[in-house]
Design a protein that fits this description.
With 408 residues, the protein is mainly alpha-helical. The strands form 3 sheets. The chain has a 3-stranded mixed beta sheet with strand order 5-6-7, covered by helices on one side. It folds into 2 domains: 199 residues, Rossmann fold, CATH 3.40.50; 200 residues, Orthogonal Bundle (N-(1-d-carboxylethyl)-l-norvaline Dehydrogenase, domain 2). It contains 17 helices and 7 strands.
Length: 408
């Protein structure tokens, strides 16, 4: 169901989905489809946290339970990458050319991440197969963009009313869509360009634009908005203080990290983002946006912040966002209302509060799974503590206003 800003909805059946197999209940059926010569592309949508890759080292986690199992029992895979490795092994043994692995997930270099995961998983059980995959399988990078909020009971009811079909999980989305894809396919591809896909040689400029401008803004909406007691993204985006803060942050600390993007004016792109964010019909929740904090902040915000630290550029606004995040995780907004817990970070924020005035106050940013070694950087550390103190003293709204003119 597409929900337009003017309030009208378009509901239709996605005709390209013609079959469904649930791997835990039908392993052989899934592998049969994956090994069929007619299967030319296997796409992945497993979220940015689903690649079993360490955010700090960039290495595949070979000690994870799923990876260990699939290495010991490659013909009985449990993980997505175990399935891909086993399917490629079977295709190779049968003399069938390998399919393309096309990641559609929201992370930098998603094709590179997919390659790392698949090759690393293969290497754990069959190094020769891993070499063959590296030499013969294509892993194109791509950037995908469409806001798809959590499906509600009302959405399920509406789809059934319009279509006469009960679907337990209809997809709700905004009308905007963008898909930028590297044209690298082992066995060819459908004519994607005929349905609006941009086929390019290098997806990186588009990818950074989307991740740091859109997804970074989503993190800001989620963390500032929840501290101020808001529930929906459109309310946070329409708030003058939040929107001005985000636009200033993007201008000051995000745009300098981006490369020119062919055919796109970045300031016009930002204007379009706010048109999308304020679409009330989508009713995207701030809890959904904040849910992606642990997996998303390192890629959407902290990556650019690291570049600024290395180059001696401003970091205050991005650091303030980290401080706001840490306070929201405590579970109370500034009006005393409850903030829904969407991650497992509360113990780090509680330790931060208990350690005020001492080394313990760095507990949140010493969570290496998210911040790596950022807490060891004196400039980041001192700026974070300064912003944390200012937020406690001034409150979010006043601090956001002050940051517009604060020294960096």
């Amino acid at each position: 169901t597409l929900k337009h800003p003017d309030g009208h909805h378009e509901t239709s059946i996605i005709g390209s989905i013609h079959d469904y197999k649930f791997a835990p209940e039908d392993r052989d059926g899934v592998l049969e489809v994956m090994t069929a010569p007619t299967t030319r592309i296997v796409s992945l949508t497993v979220t940015e946290g689903g690649y079993n890759i360490d955010d700090v080292t960039g290495a595949f986690r070979t000690d994870s339970a799923g990876a260990v199992h699939d290495a010991a029992h490659p013909s009985e895979p449990e993980t997505s990458f175990g399935y891909i490795v086993e399917a490629l092994r079977l295709r190779r043994a049968a003399g069938t050319a390998p399919f393309t692995v096309m990641s559609c997930d929201n992370l930098p270099g998603n094709g590179h991440a997919a390659r790392t995961a698949v090759v690393s998983q293969a290497r754990m059980s069959d190094p020769e197969l891993a070499q063959w995959i590296e030499a013969n399988v294509s892993f194109p990078n791509c950037m995908v963009d469409r806001i798809t909020p959590k499906t509600t009971p009302a959405d399920i009811e509406e789809a059934e009313k319009v279509l006469g079909v009960h679907d337990n999980w209809p997809v709700v989305a905004e009308p905007f869509t963008q898909w930028v894809l590297e044209d690298q396919f082992t066995l060819g591809r459908p004519p994607y360009e005929e349905v609006g896909v941009q086929l390019v040689e290098d997806v990186v400029p588009y990818e950074l634009m989307k991740l740091r401008l859109l997804n970074g803004s989503h993190q800001a909406l989620g963390h500032w908005g929840r501290l101020l007691g808001m529930t929906y993204a459109h309310d946070a985006a329409a708030d003058a203080d939040i929107s001005t803060w985000i636009r200033t942050y993007l201008d000051r600390e995000v745009l300098p990290t981006l490369r020119p993007v062919p055919g796109i004016d970045l300031r016009e792109y930002i204007d379009t983002l706010f048109e999308r964010f304020t679409n009330e019909a989508i009713a995207d929740t701030l809890a959904r946006l904040a849910f992606f904090g642990p997996s998303g902040m390192p890629k959407f915000v902290l990556a650019g912040l690291r570049e600024h630290l290395a180059a001696g550029r401003p970091i205050r606004m991005g650091t303030a966002l980290c401080a706001a995040w840490s306070l929201g995780v405590l579970g109370r907004d500034e009006n005393g209302g409850e903030i829904e817990q969407v991650d497992d970070l509360r113990p780090f924020s509680q330790a931060q509060e208990a350690g005020r005035g001492g080394e313990g106050e760095l507990a949140f940013i010493r969570n290496a799974a998210i911040f790596s070694n950022l807490a060891e950087d004196e400039r980041f550390r001192s700026t974070y503590l300064s912003e944390l103190a200012a937020l406690r003293e001034q409150g979010s709204r006043s601090r956001m206003k002050a940051l517009l003119t604060a020294e960096n």
